[in-house]
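Please annotate the following for my students:
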Amino acid sequence: MSRKLKFAVCFITIAFVAVLLTEFQIVFFGEDTKPERSDCIIVLGCRVYGTTPSPFLMGRLNRGLELYNKGYGRYIIVSGGKGEGESISEAEAMRQYLLSKGMDNSKIIVEDKSSSTMANLINSKKIMNAMGFHSAVIVSNKYHLKRASLMAKSQDIKGSYSGVFISSYKTQEISGYIREIPAVWKYYILKLN
């Protein structure tokens, strides 16, 4: 076996192991994490179609509302700015959805400036500081929680996590798990620089 071939085999093996380890972390964290009673619940933004939350965002909101109703937080922070093709901010669409489900408007805090998960957490932390909140349950899709937890930790958010898996959109959920591998690597690389 030539030196180049040995190097290629070694590189492919290391890359394969790295992919498997990262995917294991993502899946295990999403499945194993449990919410804890906190000062607030942060629902991370996701796609809005015009003014209607996407199925993924509805799933996140339903979980956030379920946790709120069970006493896991006294407020819900809805976090997400206005993206391309969205008529209103994700946060406003989320607020309207929660109101339609009977939630008290005074218990919904809107953070509508964010355009990324990191911005969601930075801006939500500012709200937490202003409100005197010390802890949060962070809600997203299960595949997203590992990266969200790394970002929350970087912002000194004392967080627990609760994830959703929308089984009627299994293909999109699985692709989310795959997309998170380079996203987690990117986070680690940028953190080192």
In short: The radius of gyration is 18 Å. The longest strand covers residues 135-141.
